[in-house]
Protein: Signal recognition particle protein
Organism: Tuwongella immobilis
Amino acid sequence: MFDSIQRGLSDALKKLRGRGRLTADNIREGLREVRRALLEADVNFTVVTKFIQRVEERSVGQDVLARVDPSEQIVKIVFDELVALMGPVDPKISFAKDRPTILMMCGLQGAGKTTTTGKLGLTLQSQGRRPLLVAADLQRPAAVDQLKIIGQQLGLPVYSEMTDPVQVCRNAVTFAKQNNLDTIILDTAGRLQIDAALMEELQQIDRLVKPDQLFLVVDAMIGQEAANVAKTFNDTLSLNAVILTKLDGDARGGAALSIKEVTGVPIKFVGMGEKLDKLEPFEPEGMASRILGQGDLMGLVRKVAEIQTQISKEELEEQQRKMEEGAFTLDDFRKQFVQLQKLGMKNMVGMMPGMSEMIPAGEDPEVALRRVQGMIDSMTKEERRRPHIIDLSRRKRIAAGSGMQAHEVNQFLKQFEQVQALMKQMASMSVFQRIKMVTG
Ligand code: GDP
């Protein structure tokens, strides 16, 4: 699960832990990992080179922080830089005041232009606008029918006529005014590849219909090529924003980074599925995680942060102190159950060291934990603090008190010894390392 950049970096930067400064020399190997991850995520080569340079400039000279793995420090810088590079994002669209606003969609055939026209119409409708979808893609006859079907599904009006694209757009504006529709979305023609005739047609619409905003729809699955497509369109048409589609597939998202870096045009929305409600505002943080291959890691970090806010600071400090001293008792262990219960325990069980071993495969964690809790509750205060004093006769009594067998109490106490050792080991680790240790 963590065969990600973090692990590679961690190995590459092991020597640095806890002392010194980050220098060009000692982070070189680490940055090679970052480069590899970016190229794997399909980020354009030139973009990667420039990006690595920037990260290096920011890293060199920084003190290696105490108690933080240097790899985390670099991942943080990389993450911040990625976010900065792709942001800021403004998902709002500005509208004209006393006339219909015209939004022009363009892109290569198959990019998802017609689908996205519908999606955008639905989004704007839910924001209280009254959109008109315009079938200006006369290149592909089926596109007109496709847009009509989409309009029907969404209950949105569709304007179409078989003249020429500029005429369709112009007449659509008149139609919108007559029918009190305030947002016109033009679904223009695409081609399999960029060609002069297409660009000419789009330029003509741009010049004569004067759209307020120009959106380029790009398929994220084409990877690096996305940046080239965006550049060519932007050079001829001066785009306002990009909509990146098919991010529900396995595209790593490198396209998002390259597009912004190469063209300077922001990404406003992303397509997350074929269905018409699958349009989302673009979020650089989510995309940065995706590019770094750390989706799961970020989720876990958030969970840990959540635990930390729900459990009082004093309690955490107390736990930390006890862990360091190896004085983690059965009472503390029990307290952790209660904390887990508060958080909807089932999915958190794996994050508590030693816990998963106490739950037989296939058993409901809640049942297993109740059993453990029963055993702890049958012990005296002194026994919970110093479990090694529990002798055979006490074990039998605890077993009887909790409806267990003496050997099961025995086994539990052995497991708890391991937990204590683990806790001591973890006391000196950073949050990332703790997560890695318990999730494998
Ligand atoms: P156009 O030629 O650019 O108008 O592209 P279409 O709108 O006809 O879309 C081409 C194909 O991509 C269709 O099968 C769509 O359902 C699909 N598609 C569009 N957007 C997305 C998306 O965000 N995710 C997925 N998985 N498929 C999409």
